[in-house]
Write a structure and sequence with these properties.
Oligomer: heterodimer
Radius of gyration of chain A: 33 Å
Helix content of chain A: 40-55%
Helix content of chain B: 40-55%
Largest sheet of chain B: 6 strands, mixed, barrel
Number of helices of chain B: 14
Radius of gyration of chain B: 31 Å
Order of helices and strands of chain B: HHEHEEHEHEHEEEHEEEHEHHHHHH
Strand content of chain A: 15-25%
Number of domains of chain B: 2
Distance between the termini of chain A: 29 Å
Structural class of chain B: alpha+beta
Number of domains of chain A: 2
Strand content of chain B: 5-15%
Order of helices and strands of chain A: HHEHEEEHEEHEHEEEEHEHHHHH
Largest interface: A-B, 67 and 58 residues
Shape of chain B: elongated
Number of helices of chain A: 12
Structural class of chain A: alpha+beta
Chain lengths: 410, 435
Amino acid sequence: MDILPILATLRRHKIIIWLLMLEIALSCAIVCNGVYLIVQRIHRMEMPSGLAEHELVQIQQAPITLPPDRYARAKEDLAALQQIPGVEAVGMTNQVPFGGSSSNGNVMLGPTQPHPTLNAATYFSENLLPAFGLRLVSGRALGSDDYVNADTVLKSLADGSGKGFPMPTIISQALATRLWPQQNPLGKLLWLAPKANFRVVGVVATLARANAYHTATAQYSMIIPLHMGADKDQSYLIRTRPDERQRVLAAAAAVLKRADPARVITHARTYDEIRSDYFQDDRAMAGMLVSVIVAVLLVTGLGIVGLASFWVAQRRKQIGIRRALGATRSDILHYFQTENFLIVTFGIVLGMALAYGLSLWLMAHYELPRLPLSYLPAGAIALWLIGQMAVLGPALRAAAVPPVVATRSV
Amino acid sequence: MFAYYLDLALHSLKRNKILTALMVVAIAVGIGASMTTFTVLHVLSGDPLPGKSGKLYYPQIDPQDARGMMPGTLPPEQVTLIDGMNLLRAKRADRQALMFGGAVPIRPDSSALDPFYVEARYTSADFFAMFDAPFLYGHGWTGADDEARARDVVITRKLDDKLFNGADSVGHTMQIGGNTFRIVGVLDDWRPNPHFYDLNTGSYNYFEQVFLPLQTALELHFEHNGSNDCWGNGTGGAGGIYPSASCVWLQFWVELDNPAKAAAYQQFLVHYSEEQKALGRFQRAPNVRLDNLMQWLDYNGVVPSDVRLQAWLAFGFLLVCMLNTVGLMLAKFLRRSGELSVRRALGASRRALFAQLLTESGVIGIAGGAGGLLLALLGLWMVRHRPSDYAALAHLDPAMLLVTFALALGASLLAGMLPAWRACNVAPALQLKSN
């Protein structure tokens, strides 16, 4: 196919061609970046928690009048929940991964370090490993001797005595690797306050934080053996078989109500619901991006159909003359297809630059990583396909123009 | 003349139904998507207290220890209990309120209702007047009630409806966390969005139903909900145990009637910091900020970044739709060069032709705007059914309705301008001859 005559024709329709190229370029930029954003959101939604997610339910209660001894109340509650048939493990924690409401601490590697090394989630919890279904990769689990009441620790910190420290802690693999790369973390010390230090006794494979804003720091977590007592900020966690979850939840609510009728069950949900709630905005955003990409491609495609139809109608006579001079139907068909291919290609070249620029702008404003170059060909292929599909109808109509048109005057 | 152009335009549009539909739909979809996202952005970045927000300020001071101090470090976003009480009692502003949030259990008198928890705000007397909170019945408590740790409570209309079937409950008592409180006021519907005075609770659609004096709450150990930031050996507390002295966890707001007073107040904050440093409580050089309400919202970036991104995305989409429409119109107008040349040859001026063609694109714009409006209403309905906390706020207001039509008409006229200008510049004689 000879390209030069096509280029010569295109030069006669400069403005329309420019408009079409701009439209294609803009579509290309939106599609490339949009697809990348969708992939990012999907990655985010798949962020691992480290938990046996489908076997877990959470129940939160709030007392109407404070119990005389909240530690005793928590102990009774845990024992009662453990008695429910089908319950495999019961634990208690101040936060759950992706639960939203979080508790975090600034981690230091010495008591006088001027700036904290990093910020990590602090799980104040009981029996967390079996209840969450966490995988211990090294060291030991926490035993009943390790636990102290929250009041004792608060008092020790308030009077500055530091009594009871260092306490044992279990940290996530990600935190261990970040704090002590290439070293055995077991036995190492870390500080959350000048008087509050912790000795690493175990490492779990994965444990995400409650408020995982950034993927890079989402897995920095530590588990501290504290009795927090029964209050409305603590959660009971129950591990059971997936098909038993609803029954166990109902039974747990009943058990807690029976132990103290003057309390309110504020949350009773499966862990699957927690995850789904946490990532709802990401899901909505991904959905919106998909619709915009589809709409952009559709509008661009229909625009190409419209313009190509016009050109075909406008050039009926010239097509007839070409046919009369011996051009075959496929010559005409290929002419329009090649023309479209050229325009789309110019548009894509412009679009690549635009896509890259857009990516830089997004990086500056939305803390997004740079658009990987592999997305550019994907966008290009999408637009080539759309272009060829859109032009096919008008081009076939052009090919159907009979040579006799050439002999008609108007 | 305009009626004639309109007639010509409709005639021309009818001749090419599919193309017309394509242009109208492209504008409608572009406008619909943009207006949906712009409306959400507009609602979320709105002023929660129009007319008042310029006089409300959020003072920040820096009570942290010297460890880790770096030049340019921003002061903490809340205050400690000690500093809050000091600033409150100093009364250096026209009005001031110290506060923190929580949730309290309520045991209704009627046995038909189960006990339940509601969100609560523990604050000081000026709160209601400062934030223009409207009273349905009664009034707030006084500064003397604050110091006396009075068992006074202000409830919302919603809670009043629930507990007293909407009757004037002022003077009645209610049980909060096992304590008897006297109702002194009932607030009418009051839903400042974003929840500007405490952004730690979630920025949108968070409403307390119970307001009671801060010092009363402290005395009764009502639970604290919100964030706290500690340094040194400070601990965040748990349940009814409050964060320790080296933690910031309360919000402090002041009302200052004019910029001169704001400047003076900022100076006061510096003096206060110096004084506290001299006393040995503060270790850092004075590090203060005094944002007004809108600056404070901006500083905290309350509008979700996703919402901004969606608005940009929709705007990009609108651009694609516009380019599409310009291209199609250009093709269409140029195709009619013959007809236009005849009109020119018969004496129509360029200006007349231009007006005629713009009328045609204007008709497309209005049709597209109407379609866009319907799509925007549909889009906002969809947004409202999303689970986000701001979802319920997504309603089209009259201003955005006007913007929708202005944008659609403006966009289509702009889209028609270039094609019309090109088409008018066709040389009549040449065009007629070639035909």
